[in-house]
């Protein structure tokens, strides 16, 4: 049973000058605060040959092809970049320790281990990508977070690939503990040549649904008009807002139910429709937003983005929201009247993962064994990555692991 608290992810540069050790790859955004990113850089003086060591935390928006497009412009924009000098240290090594994992790693890895620590600003999106079409090989639109460590003469000097280590990490959000009230929307529509209106109401059981959970939509129609309702279509829309140079919204229906229900003039209808928005039913569709996931198999529709109040205007990247759409197709008041109109309702809701069990805190006295994992791309299939640097990412294996102290 490898609980995540004992697992340490490590990756060592090809020239062995720098190695990165981290206790986790997922960092939770609780809206009012985000887990800090911390770890240890292990240096090898012989391989360093007098160079300095730096570590960066970046958030990048990639769009288009992996490398460069036809006219040589890289399709990537750095939304955030923070750099720290790790070696020579700018402060006492002990002062840089912020977590128990760091302290334990420093003891285990010895005198050439140096801590690093970053905090996320609060205007960044979470890890998310848009599903490419089946034939769009190598094309990707994604928000990605990365820790990069490298050795160089100075921060701005040219960095050699073999002296660089890159680790993709994720920023994730879970459903908040407290929930708003169950969403309910209603509308009244008057028609020409009709004395009385049509009244429609749609209500959900709650505000937050978990991935894979059916959504019950309670629809109530009171048709006092002289028109006939010919059909009722109930669906879930995923709205992805891509904020980069402009503000583009992409709306994709990810679940739909249509039974041909009709409500004649003067009649009423009370019905519960059940919708199940799942990635499994939307696999081949281009532009569906997905959560950045560790393995491609268990990725899912992107979770709703919850943005801290006051920073919405500053957030760049991809933001995701969901709504239930209830659409009534209204026919004429006489048979064969071909003039149709629509009456629609939008009911917003959130689609998220529950918070993982937070109750599994170990007592500090118990020193569990640390398990070291090579940090390889295969962990992050759902996230797109620079596979051109794969060769520079290969860890040195056990011969590069420090000797037990």
From TrEMBL:
GO terms for cellular component: photoreceptor inner segment; photoreceptor outer segment. It holds the Pfam family Arrestin_N. GO terms for molecular function: G protein-coupled receptor binding. Residues 384-405 are annotated as: Disordered. Residues 194-356 form the Arrestin C-terminal-like domain. InterPro entries: Arrestin (IPR000698), Arrestin-like_C (IPR014752), Arrestin-like_N (IPR011021), Arrestin_C-like (IPR011022), Arrestin_CS (IPR017864), Arrestin_N (IPR014753), Ig_E-set (IPR014756). It comes from the Eukaryota. GO terms for biological process: G protein-coupled receptor internalization; nervous system development; signal transduction. Belongs to the arrestin family. This is S-arrestin.
